[in-house]
Amino acid sequence: MKKLFISGMIALTLSACDSGQEVFHFDEMTYSPSETVFKLFAPADAQCFVVVGSDTLQMEQMADTIWIATAQGDRKGQTYQFLVNGLVSPGVFAKAVSVNGEKGVVIDLRESDPEGWESDQPVRKQPQDIVVYEMHHRDFSVNQPLAQHPGKFLALTEPWAINHLKELGITAVHILPSYDYGSVDETRLNEPQYNWGYDPVNYNVPEGGYSTDPYDPLCRIREFKQMVQKLHEAGIAVILDVVYNHTYDIEHSNFQRTYPDYYYRKTEDGKYSNGSGCGNETASEKPMMRLFMIESVKYWINEYHIDGFRFDLMGCHDIETMNQIRKAVDEIDPNIFIYGEGWSAGACALPNEQLGMKANISKMPRIAAFSDEIRDALRGPFSDDTKMGWLGLSSTSGCETDLGALKESLMYGIVGGIKHPQIDQSLVNYAKEAWASEPTQMMAYVSCHDDMCLVDRLKASIPGISEEELIRLDLLAQTAVFTSQGVPFMLSGEEMLRTKQGVHNSFESPDSINRLDWQNKERYPQVFNYYKNLISLRKNHPAFRWGEAEQVRQHLEFLPTSDATVAFLLKEHAADDDWADIIVVLNASDKPVVVDIPNGHYTVVCCDGQIDEQGLGEVSGNKVQVSKQSALIIHN
Length: 636
Ligand code: CA
Hints:
Helix 9 packs across helix 10 (467-482). The longest helix is centred in the middle third of the chain and has 18 residues, at 287-304. With 636 residues, this protein is an alpha/beta fold. It is elongated, with a radius of gyration of 26 Å. The protein folds into three domains: 5-89, Immunoglobulins (Immunoglobulin-like), CATH 2.60.40.10; 131-544, TIM Barrel (Alpha-Beta Barrel); 556-635, Sandwich (Immunoglobulin-like). Residues 1-22 have low confidence and may be disordered. The chain binds calcium ion. Calcium ion (CA) binds at residues 100-101, 180-182, 186, 201, 207-209. The site of calcium ion has 10 residues, from strand 15.
């Protein structure tokens, strides 16, 4: 045994063995039929016990801060809890838990594998080929008459769900927090309860509220895997929303109850820093918090076959940790996609230059961030639901003051957040320098769970908007998103004109606010078909997703238009694309506009709220007229 100092603070013991060195892997519980070994990262001067079944075992110091105990005999099915200086917890890395995640449970993970799991094939694509669909388990299925397991992981194994996602054509579902969180009481699932789940309890166990039996520790694990398996069979990737940046509170968190104050940042005056806006922020730069995040991500990939990660408030994490996560993930599969919110929700205790902020994305290769530039350019700022963006320029609450800035910000989103010779970066809102090195580092979107959905936003900011105008602007907005060179991202239900009845922050609103209205799919077939055909158009034509900044600069050229219109040419076709040149015109004006285009003969594939790749008509010449509040796409 020898000691290795990972930093000046933390000493870990490594035991040399024939194949190399054995390192602590947050392997808190290792089961075998003859014994179960417990290890814990806890202070060197702590009193540590583990209570297994009815036995209380004193833990021994394996190294300064690593504690170990071995429970003899077959302990499968028994619960366990660690006791550190009298504080009880299931540890920080429980892989199976009792109801509400209070206790760890000794299990054999292989018994949680559904039939055929060993042949499950992950779905991993290059980032430019990904189309993300962000969803919450309850929103999606709780109001679907065909659902056998409404609001559960298993709903996503059902034919109606798989068929809808395949029909729409998205390539990845991004599921809102699906690890064990605290705000839904798993013992009262027959009562109305709802939460987004941004209050992690056990980071490495699926949430019990989405299982059919939260009392059976294997059930949630097996059903989560069944969900992944069915989605993979349908060719759909599974992206997990991970929230390492904060815990619900400090006092009750498993971090605090095993190693007080280690995992959190403090300000210079000794208070807990609150960069998450939730009362605390974790300290990713500390070796064991960093290791925790790396091990957790790897565990979800290896055990649950997860294909991508969305980091909540990535701007709270340090750059070095994000890069180390990228490196660790690359060793498994470079096509596992990583993106995050490139901001924090308050000041962090680390300087911004060290944090995973949007402005630092160029220091985090192959990690993407959400573009609030394109989002807000289209529909107005997060801070004021009544303000409209470029979409609503014809309305009185519109943007007459800085239309040029909105147009430039939209153009910046269309190129994928990279430097482009035709974009005057000084006009772009929030980004006076282009922050993405590659277009695949930018998530293009107009709405997500965190905010009003698009329909509500249009209604809130354009008083008296007619249904017809609402649909036109909705489709126009998403055309910008799905023809952006960034990675397109949509909120579940937008394809059916989702409404949350005007609620902005619906994190604990009832189902009646958050649920999708599936009848809208039949009610507005034009909307669903447009979304479907728009996604198909993107997938079928590589010119919409060059993937590399240099290619975008070479092939994407903006055409001169007024501020009410954005037009761009995708020239000299992409490999495998039989369309030579593609022209996209986005017109927010409430009047038809005429745009100058290169002289030629073109086939129209999108106009007036309709898309048909086979062609909707032909146009010739060097001018083209575009209907009010709509997109036109033509090719030759
Ligand atoms: Ca829970």
